[in-house]
Design a protein that fits this description.
The protein has 239 residues and is α+β, with helices and mostly antiparallel strands. The protein contains nine helices and nine strands. It is 39% helix and 15% strand. Strand 2 and strand 3 form a beta hairpin.
Length: 239
């Protein structure tokens, strides 16, 4: 079930929080021998709502009127509140051996004994905060793991094959909407493209208000450069 909270969101004060940069996470965590990935089950639903907030988030359906008891998806500040919770839980463990992005936690170590010790620390901390994991999404003690769309190993990190195929199959944009979709996809890889802002500028200019859509030679050159970089499977190794 999906609830449309747009009206409520329009009158809700923003609670802004800066999510960690994926490039920073990858740089910190890559280069180790052993990895484990944990996923929190039904992430937002692990946060209980106050009674006063339940009323604000109430909704009606063909089955009747309901009030959620847990933090729902679609509410304006759900992501921020969840990030605040997981940060309170794990921030003091965060570093070269542990990183997290919302409900996705990655643990890294140079030896099996070390990663087992760190796993136990995380399990104990999650239990203290009454947070539960999804057993179907847990990966334990793997030397090459996929996390946030990147393959991570002792050799560094590189875009996953799924992400490479998405880039490979993306056609040359034919309108502004397709340009926006392409830019949204490539922005995920911007840290892999030297001088990204300069390279992508001809394509970005097509999204500016009042600019006619003309896919120029400069646009095609920028498109070709970025496609070539990602399709060559760039591997970033921590020095």
């Amino acid at each position: 079930m999906v609830v449309d909270y747009r009206l409520l969101n329009s009158v809700t004060e923003s609670f802004k929080i800066c999510l960690p940069k994926i490039a920073d996470i990858l740089h910190e965590i890559s280069g180790k021998k052993w990895y484990s990935v944990l996923d929190l089950k039904s992430a937002f639903f692990q946060i209980k709502l106050k009674n006063s907030d339940k009323q604000k988030l109430a909704f009606c359906s063909e089955l009747g009127n309901f009030q959620p008891t847990r933090l729902p998806f679609g509410s304006k500040n759900s992501t921020s509140y969840f990030h605040l919770l997981i940060s309170k839980c794990l921030d003091d463990l965060k570093g070269p051996n542990l990183q997290f992005f919302l409900d996705d936690i990655i643990i890294a170590a140079y030896s099996i004994s070390e990663i087992n010790t760190r796993l136990q620390l995380v399990f104990d901390r999650l239990a203290k905060f009454n947070l539960t994991l999804d057993p179907n999404k847990i990966q334990i003690c793997i030397t090459n793991i996929t996390y946030l769309g990147f393959n991570i190993s002792a050799n560094g990190y590189a875009p996953s094959e799924d992400n490479i195929q998405k880039v490979a199959k993306f056609p040359v944009p034919q309108n502004v909407k397709q340009v926006q979709s392409y830019l949204g996809m490539m922005n995920y890889f911007r840290h892999l493209i030297f001088n990204y802002a300069e390279v992508v500028e001809p394509i970005v200019n097509l999204t500016r208000k009042g600019t006619p859509f003309v896919w120029s030679g400069n646009c095609q050159d920028a498109f070709n450069v970025m496609q070539e970089i990602i399709l060559n499977k760039p591997n970033i190794k921590k020095l």
